[in-house]
Every structure is written in C-alpha cells, then in structure tokens.
C-alpha cells in the first residue's frame, strides 16, 4: 500500500481553510490534530515530514511505542481515547494534551502524576453531548461544577471541551451538537478556556462552522483503519 500522505495532508488543510473562509472564521484559527491510532510510526513520520506536528492517539501502549520510536521528531502528542485509572501515570508523563477527561478521579490522578519538570498538562473535558448511554463524557448537568473544580488543579491547564456527537443525517443536524458545545464553553466563562475539540473526517466543516478550534482527523489523512 502506497498512500500519498503529503497529498492527503494538503487536501485536509484545504478543507479546513475553505471552511474557515466560508463560515467567517479567522484564517488559521482551526488547528489540525492528526489521529494516528492503528497506523504505524512510519505513517506518522511521513505526515510529520509534510509539516504536521500534532498527533492524537487512543490506545496507551500503542502510543508509547510510537512516541519512543519518533522521539527524535519535535511532535506534540494528544491522548484522545477512553482513560482507565491505572493508565493515568503514562499519560501524565508522555503527553502534552488529554482531550478525553470524563471523570473527576481521572483529572485528580493526572494532576498528581504530572512530572514537575514538564509544563502543566493541557486538558479538555469530554462532554456526552448527545446523551448516549454507550458513550463516555460528562453529562451537561455536571459540567459546570466539574469545570470549576478541574480549573483549580495546579498541574493541569483546563483548555476547553471535547465531544463526539452521534452520527447525524445532514449538515444542519451535524451542526446542532457542536453549537451546544460552543454555548457551554461560553457559558462556563472560565479564564483560559480557548479550545473546542470537535469535528472528525465526516463532519469537520460543521464543526468549523460552529467554532471548532481543533479538529481531530484520522481517516481523511491516513485512510481507513483495519
Ligand atoms: C478515531 C477518532 C477520531 C478520528 O476519526 P476519523 O473519523 O477517522 O477522522 C477523532 N476523535 C476521536 C476521539 C477518535 O477516537
């Protein structure tokens, strides 16, 4: 298999820049997170060579292997998958961002385990925006209290909110949960909250329309996962 990662990278960047223009977002206000889960370190290295710096991973052991293999590259690693309490130390030690904080206990462990010689860990709270029983994330009813508590933890830096909406039938329906997440970020009104982590390969334009500052893109960059 010979994927032209540089061409896919340019196509995704063009989608983001086009959506920024179409929805009156400032140029370069949306950051691309390349979701490399299940794809080999060699694919990450090719995308890095094309200019990508931020990479997202879901599975801790797979991520640690890639981070070690690519240590010579100047990359920023984001953890975006479900978090087991016994994996927080590895995450606190090896990542710059965590997008999938969904319980106070996890935030407290990451805060306690973040090494003193690293900057505070950037955090997004995951919100179960469509109230799906099978999905991770805080319920909207508990979000305000959780955000205020997490914002006080000194080794974390609460940056914003993340969501993975249920699949939607059309563009207007895709926009609705993203709009709610944007409204929550505004309503929380906490200093330093500058991130809306929302939008994937199939709905990035709807997310940009509603204020995404970071889109998490896997399939459109790396091809389908096995
Ligand atoms: C896998 C994954 C993505 C990427 O999804 P694509 O549809 O492949 O772009 C984004 N966010 C999270 C949390 C994921 O687990």
Molecular structure report:
With 226 residues, the protein is of the alpha/beta class. The protein is built from 9 helices and 8 strands. It has an 8-stranded parallel β-sheet. Helix 4 crosses helix 5. The longest helix is centred in the first third of the chain and has 18 residues. The chain is globular and about 45 Å long. The two termini are 13 Å apart. The chain binds pyridoxal-5'-phosphate. The site of pyridoxal-5'-phosphate has 13 residues, from strand 8 and helix 9.
How would you summarize the topology of this molecule?
Blueprint: H1 5-22, E1 31-35, H2 41-49, E2 54-57, H3 60-69, E3 76-79, H4 88-94, E4 97-101, H5 104-113, E5 121-126, H6 140-150, E6 156-162, H7 171-188, E7 195-197, H8 204-209, E8 214-217, H9 219-222
Parallel strand pairs: 1-2, 1-8, 2-3, 3-4, 4-5, 5-6, 6-7
Helix pairs in contact: 4-5
The site of pyridoxal-5'-phosphate (PLP) has 13 residues, from strand 8 and helix 9.
> What is the topology, as strand order, of the major beta sheet?
7-6-5-4-3-2-1-8
Report the strand count.
8
CATH topology: TIM Barrel
Proportion of strand residues: 15-25%
Category from helices, strands and their pairing: alpha/beta
What is the CATH domain class?
A: Alpha Beta
Kindly give the count of domains: 1
Overall residue-averaged pLDDT value: 97
First-residue to last-residue Cα separation: 13 Å
List keywords for this structure.
226 residues; eight-stranded parallel beta sheet; globular; alpha/beta; 17% strand; 41% helix; binds pyridoxal-5'-phosphate; 8 strands
């Amino acid at each position: 298999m010979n994927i032209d990662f540089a061409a896919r990278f340019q196509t995704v960047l063009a989608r983001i820049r086009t959506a920024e223009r179409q929805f009156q977002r400032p140029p370069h206000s949306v950051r691309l997170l390349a979701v490399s889960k299940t794809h080999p370190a060699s694919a990450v290295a090719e995308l890095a060579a094309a200019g990508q710096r931020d990479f997202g991973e879901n599975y801790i052991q797979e991520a640690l292997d890639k981070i070690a293999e690519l240590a010579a590259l100047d990359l920023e690693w984001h953890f975006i998958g479900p978090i087991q309490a016994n994996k927080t130390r590895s995450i606190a030690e090896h990542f710059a961002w965590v997008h999938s904080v969904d319980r106070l206990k996890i935030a407290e462990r990451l805060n306690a385990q973040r090494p003193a010689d690293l900057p505070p860990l950037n955090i997004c709270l995951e919100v179960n925006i469509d109230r799906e029983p099978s999905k991770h994330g805080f319920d909207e009813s508990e979000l305000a209290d959780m955000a205020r508590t997490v914002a006080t933890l000194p080794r974390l830096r609460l940056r914003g909110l993340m969501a993975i909406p249920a699949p939607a039938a059309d563009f207007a329906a895709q926009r609705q949960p993203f709009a709610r997440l944007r409204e929550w970020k505004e309503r929380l009104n906490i200093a330093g909250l500058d991130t809306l982590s929302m939008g994937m390969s199939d709905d990035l334009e709807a997310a940009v329309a509603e204020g995404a500052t970071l889109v998490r893109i896997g399939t459109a960059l790396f091809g389908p996962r096995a």
